[in-house]
Design a protein that fits this description.
With 274 residues, the protein is mainly α. The chain has one domain. The chain contains 10 helices and no strands. The chain is elongated. It starts with a helix and ends with a helix.
Length: 274
């Protein structure tokens, strides 16, 4: 049974979907970093009273980057969801034809890189998309699918936890720096500076809110996993868990590439040494 799933996940169309999703998530990662740079510059310019037109232009640039980033994440999540749906024999999500054609086009444009990616596993350098799910000890098809979903959740939990620690550490450091820089200001000027930097604070709060939604989703996923483990696994249980995985994939939380690569190597070492 595992051999059937292993073979299917390494078919050309499936590898194209995973490569396409990876490229989109990489782009979302870059856009997020550019957004943060624009945000910081905008906040600084606002505080030192630069011409309002410049601030408005930067705000528009930020909004455009935000929109493109959101589309990248949405399409990447759809590609991963279609991959799972085909692999697990679930209902195919809407937009299948569009995503499949886009994935094929991107793979043709980046044929050299795609060839490497489709022939490399997560243990290779560079890490590829072959053998996306690792072999598990499930006996029935439902057990194998469930184990793949658990692998997905545990992998994501590890990566996002480290990402979260880095994010909150940066927030604390920025807050301390802001206090140090403005500690001699009068209360009025301090409040005014904070108001001028409001857009930056608002966007950071949005990211914090995404982490809050992630934590809620993770609790629900782990609860669902524990519930399914106590009974005979049915397809309805798997579909229910998959919906939570889909919900997580659409959150605007993309791990930094360096963190993802590091965790990928470590996780594969753990799996290999079991």
């Amino acid at each position: 049974m595992w051999e059937e799933i292993s073979k299917k996940q390494n078919e050309e169309e499936m590898l194209q979907l995973q490569y396409y999703a990876r490229k989109l998530y990489d782009m979302a990662n870059i856009l997020f970093l550019i957004k943060m740079i624009v945000l910081v510059i905008n906040a600084i310019l606002a505080i030192i009273n630069i011409n309002a037109i410049v601030i408005v232009i930067l705000s528009i640039i930020y909004a455009v980057l935000e929109y493109i980033e959101g589309n990248c994440i949405k399409n990447a999540a759809s590609a991963r969801e279609i991959f799972d749906a085909i692999l697990f024999d679930f209902s195919i999500p809407k937009g299948y034809t569009r995503i499949k054609e886009n994935a094929k086009r991107i793979c043709i444009i980046n044929s050299g890189e795609f060839t490497i990616q489709k022939n490399n596993t997560g243990e290779d350098k560079p890490a590829g998309v072959k053998n996306w799910y690792t072999k598990n000890n499930g006996v029935t098809k439902n057990e194998i699918i469930f184990n793949c979903q658990v692998e997905n959740t545990k992998w994501d939990e590890k990566i996002t936890k480290i990402n979260s620690i880095i994010f909150w550490s940066i927030m604390v450091i920025l807050f301390i720096i802001y206090i140090i820089v403005r500690h001699k200001d009068s209360v009025g000027n301090f409040i005014l500076g904070s108001i001028l930097a409001f857009e930056m604070i608002e966007q950071l709060m949005q990211i914090a809110f995404e982490y809050k939604k992630y934590n809620k989703n993770l609790i629900e996923r782990n609860f669902e996993i524990q519930r399914i483990q106590t009974k005979k696994i049915k397809k309805d249980d798997l579909v229910s868990l998959q919906e939570l995985i889909k919900e997580r994939r659409n959150l605007k939380l993309v791990p930094f590439n360096s963190i993802h690569k590091y965790i990928t190597i470590k996780m594969h070492e753990v799996i290999r040494n079991k």
